[in-house]
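Q: Can I see a sequence and its folded structure?
A: Here is a first one.
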Amino acid sequence: MACFISLLLSTLLLIDVHTNGPVSYEIGGWSAPWGIEFRADYLSAFVLLLVSAIASVVIVGAQTSISRELPTGQQTVFYVLYLLCFAGLLGIVASGDVFNVFVFLEISSLATYALIAMGRERQALWAAFQYLIVGTVGATFFLIGIGILYSLTGTLNMADLSMRLPSVEERQLVAVAFGFIVVGIGLKLALFPLHGWLPNAYTFAPSIAAAMLAGTATKVSLYLLIRVYFGIFGTAAATALLPVDTVFLVLGVSAALIASLVAMRQQDVKRIFAFSSIAQIGYLVVGVGLGNATGLQASLLHLFNHALMKAALFIALAAIVYRVGSSKLADFRGLGHTMPFTMAGLLIGALSLIGVPLTVGFISKWYLVLAALEAGLWPVAALVLIASFLALFYLWKIVEVAYFERSDATEPAREAPMALLIPLWILVIANLYFGIDTRLTIEGSAAAAAFLTGGAL
């Protein structure tokens, strides 16, 4: 119920922001920059709606999925952690104060560590511990950067920071602060080569938790990166301090290519999709690194579109794990015939991941290629297309096993229950609908990109 109430409120907030402009709420009656401010502009309201929508759709299938993967005594704890993680993600997006972003970042992270550790295999504990160490380092870097900014400007409010930073004379310290903050966010974002925690986390977490995290957590981290880069520091000032655009381009393209090649070698479908997430994060960062309005629009489009496709894929996996008890590629034999609706949903999600026309994946990758050509970087456009083509190979492995091989099981799997098929097909239909009718996403992302590149928060 809490997720659906949040979805309703997020929808009303987006309508209000679209109609009347940014909304600001002062905590305790203290006005910004002295007090804590919750602020929603078009971008943050859009991301709040996205996170609420994914969390609400995923929660529909949660009880069915965890009934097979978690003991009865742990199921209540799962919901507490799920909602705590959800609240932390919403807080990151809604906060207009960088220190409170850190607070909400830790709230969501602590809940995520515990969610991952609840996986039924012993490797889940190692995956959670690994993410705990990496996440703590990332949070520390982020906090150090915030501390340096506060010492230079005397404020923690994002809007106030964006106005005061240009007049700070200690430009080297500003560069150091920016570097610490970007590395901290990069660790949370799983930006190559800071991605080591993500494959194990997605593989060994409870399947429905992986669906929620894949659809929301990295998207919120990208939102935070965009907010810091475009909103607080400004692209011109940031690139004058450090070669940020070049770094983002190199790391983004490397992630898209290398992660796709690694995904081709995996024998667990969860790991295949985990490495594909690292590749997709690369696309997101390439758009940011291009530095133009079209590139930022492509990143915002892919933020929305990737949330839809990856949540759909992981819910399909949750349905398969529910019936088969495994996400190993070898156990997918014959599932195209015994679980036709589940595998059809997974197939459409996979086509969207590749970027096939009439799916959301095609739209965002099209804009990414356009942005690269607009910037005169045709090699980047070519590498993006090559990386998308590589996705065809590792996804074809799944299709080949599911549709062209026979199962060795004595009792063939049955179709997934409706509680998992309903959220799966809601997301699958969204993948197709927003791939055909693109007015909402393109107009919204263009408005948000113009807003940010205009230098305003």
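Q: Show me another, different protein.
A: A second, unrelated one:
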Amino acid sequence: MSELQGAPSINKLRARLAADATNEPLRLQVAQTLLQSGDAKAAREVGLVLVQSSADALWEQAHVLLGQAAEQLGLHDEARACWETLLALDVDHVTARAQLARLSKHSPPSTPPRTTSYKAEATLLSPEGVVAARYEIIAELGRGATGTVFLARDTHLGLQVALKVLHPFLGVAARSEMRERFFREARLAAALRHPGVVAVYDLDEHTRSLSLEYLPLGTLRERMNAAGRLDAGELRATVERLLLTLAHVHGSGLIHGDIKPRNILLRAPGDPVLGDFGVARLCDSNDNASGGGTPLYFAPEQLRGAGSSIATDVFAVGALVWELVVGRAMRSHADLTSGRFEAPTLPDGAVADLGATGAALARFVASTTATAPAARPASAQAALALL
């Protein structure tokens, strides 16, 4: 009975869409209504065009819908691809992570996992055969918001590099602005030339690839996972050198915009190297949009819609230090969704374990994560002085 009652509503929506086929929000509504009514095939057909949408929210909702429709139709590999695409853009996407975990448990992929066939994956991600042209892919190192990073051998330079290849969805025309921005900022990062910044060797817009310095010790996140809480000496050295690098980055006219453990690599324990300038922007840019980043490390004003700035980079360092001291992230997604944007104080026990360094870091975190931007140190150099 409910299906009969719902049918006229669906028919009216489809009639409106037929009269206004370019109305993307309406198209999404029609597809969602079809899916809720149990017609996954029709929902998939209607919603498929939205994967080309230039509106990020619509693009995301379309992938959620298509993943759900594919699962209902038994197209498990297609559903898995939708969830992996969302996780590539946001590693903490709650729906995609939960659905992919459930799907992997109950329906293993019909093709081998991506990490077991590096060359095949690289060829798929790299148009015009970038592997044959210059790079020999050795292994996949990781995935982020904009691309997959491979360990590769540069046959021209005769050395190992980290080869970042942009995700396929960034190659579509609707994503040209994001793609152009990535390469513009990559050029800015390449001009920094500082030992605390990952060196950029080469970029190729045709193959959508970026050749970077390879740092075999991996990321600060991996170091934290392996070592647990860092000892006082390593922790302090990490923070001091990161701030010196950030002072250079800001002094060169750039805001990083996405400081977090995964974007910090290591030459040695306590010797961090700042990477991934994919959402960086000029300090004097008039663009006030946030432009991406990781909300767990956002300053309160960013979570309320403000853009990135020197003050938000300083806040992100404070949030990072909080995590290094305590051993867990300063905030959770539940905090953010419930509007708890302010930084909590460091637990006394974690501070006491670090002795005199702990007291200095507690003052540092309290100052750098102040709710009001004006209450934070005015620069990375000023933040360093707190230590």
